[in-house]
Amino acid sequence: MTFRYLPTTEEDKKEMLDFLGVSSVDELFSDIPEEVRFQGMMKLDEALSEPDLVKFMSGLANKNANFTTHVNFLGAGTYQHYAPSTVNHMLLRGEFFTAYTPYQPEISQGELQAIFEFQTMVCELTGMEVANSSMYDGFTSMAEAAMMAAGHKGKKRVVVSKAVHPETRHVLSTYAYGQEVEVVEVDYTNEGVTDLDSLKVALQNDTAAVLVQYPNFFGSVEDLRALEEIVHAAGALLIVSANPVALGLLEAPGKLGADIVVGDMQPFGIPVSFGGPHCGYFATTSKLMRKMPGRIVGQTKDEDGKRGFVLTLQAREQHIRREKATSNICSNQALLALASSIALTGLGKQGVQEMAKMNVQKAYYAKQELAKVNGVEAVFEAPFFNEFVVKLPVSVSEANKVLLSKGIIGGYDLELAYPELYGHMLIAVTELRTKDEIDQLVKELEAIAHA
Length: 451
Known about the structure:
This protein is of the alpha/beta class. Helix 6 runs parallel beside helix 11 (334-371) and helix 11 crosses helix 13. The chain is globular and about 80 Å long. A seven-stranded mixed sheet has the order 2-8-7-6-5-3-4, sandwiched between helices. A four-stranded antiparallel sheet has the order 11-12-15-14, with helices on one face. The chain is built from 13 helices and 15 strands. Helices cover 37% and strands 15% of the residues. The chain folds into two domains: 71-82 and 349-449, Aspartate Aminotransferase, domain 1 (Alpha-Beta Complex), CATH 3.90.1150; 86-343, Aspartate Aminotransferase, domain 2 (3-Layer(aba) Sandwich).
């Protein structure tokens, strides 16, 4: 029998043994004492034929709760959104699907143009002057921004709001440890936004940057204009991690004084896929362009005057002196950046705005209906986008078990990252949720609250 995925044949084995000058595979292990060698056969199931293996693996996959079998209200950094059907049709074309980092730009014009368009779209969304060709994800993108700010300012201290995604803060701490940068966290208010008074106290002369999220992890919209005044008055940079879908409705951070804007393009054209992969974006001012990690694709003309694309800047350690490198990121998410570009192109400016409005309207409806349930309390009064927090009379883990049995993937248990928020659930409502689905969630949570 031949095996598609085990190409070594008996002839291959014989050729290897002849080359080594031994008569059998067992002879290769003759130096290992007999008494410590494994005897007999390992307790493994018999090999399956390919059709049987496909059936077996499909059966395992079907045990997962997924978006075809359950209604999803879980967000917390990874979101279920509409993606135009053109995304996969374009993405799976061989010239894109198999393309790698364009080390030879003169023969990678299509790939480079796709990246160039991605950079342009990121700038339009964020209101910034320049964007790079993408980062691995939104979490590492923000950590890279903090390290860039520390290097640019020559200061070893950054301040981050506790309303920033907890996993982003964990990644930031990991990056900062290696760079010997101090990370100081400031608390959030009972409205679910960064405490500005605490921020003022935390800001010191050695602070390189302040990091906030927009909307923040609780879904609340931070007052970037007020933050900008405080941060810049202290001589620090303002770094904003922004949900790109929300930027279809909210004022762009660049218009409100942000120095660096980062985030995750996953909401546009990139499926949840049980947690990844993602595609981070990174945008900044032209003044900070040469400090930006990764690479930038630029537009130029060849000797015949025809438009062409090149790798304009590559500030990583493989291309410049190590001590001058701003980052050691070695690649980019070109394929997923392309997915986001295709999705944004398919939606268009009006489509992105409509999509953002639907997120707000449906989320507000859900919060309004849940607030009517006796025993369920809507917390945090700040304006929000497509996520909000409710307090339940039971633990969120218990509630989610019940919801799962009813075909609903419930919200994020905030106690996991914020011990003080026992019984608080972070619920995400995107444009894909229908009124009937929202009403069903309300009905099930009402039954849980009154059980």
